[in-house]
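Sample entry (285 residues):
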Amino acid sequence: MSPMPGDEADVRAATPEEAADPRRMHAANRVAWDQAAEDYERRLAGSIHRLRAGRSSLLPVELDLIGDLRGRCDHAIHVQCAGGEDTLSLWLAGAARVTGIDFSPRMLDLARRLAAAVEAPAGWVEADVLDLPHELDGTADLVYTGRGSIMWVQDIDAWAAGLARLPRPGGRLVVFEGHPAEWLFDGDGGGGWILTDYDYFAGPEASRGWSPAYIERLSLSDDAQAWKFARAWTLGEVVTALLGTGLRVETVTEHPVDWYGGHRDVHPAERGRLPLSFSVTATRP
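Predicted structure, serialized as tokens:
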């Protein structure tokens, strides 16, 4: 079982028919994320407060990867932006304007409300990551994605090809994501690690319900929620997909950063022993 969705009411392997149809799985994920937006709505006031105070939601490691955007980033695009707080944090980092892309209309409604509240120069596009709009091709100085996004993608080559279209020549791609090896470990209840029963090469799994560490309890019961599909793409699969696009991959780095705070029950020294996240930076020639 994956540590990200975790604690679901139902978990099963995707059927062969489901696994053969990435867009069918993405359509199911869209419904599940519309439902999960209820939790983001509860947190909207806090997001507004943080952004008004100039506090980024991006992690220090992400800010180091992205760098100071002031005067050198006219347009930043955030793919799979959810409720938009990370997108607007790119604006705080100095991007003159930002665009967030997501397939959930309910998430994008929250993003619009958030941007209006802080008067940010932001645009929002409803689109699946497998079908990014061509009018954005070659328009971004920076393309950013990550923090729990890739696991919901069911066609890694189409994902990479879409991302590669967005940067202008010389533009950058920054990916910061949970490490797929993280799915193999969980806390043992005493501050250490135990091995889970997850198969690193298993492919997509279907689940209903959410881990409270990730999405707080929704008003819908678990068995009334939509099925959703996640998978741990291996590091090799992610990097190979990006290499196949013609982007110039510059760095691939593994980090001991607990990117979503899901391992607070594990001692910090123990967390530092495992790769819990990774990053890729690339440029468009």
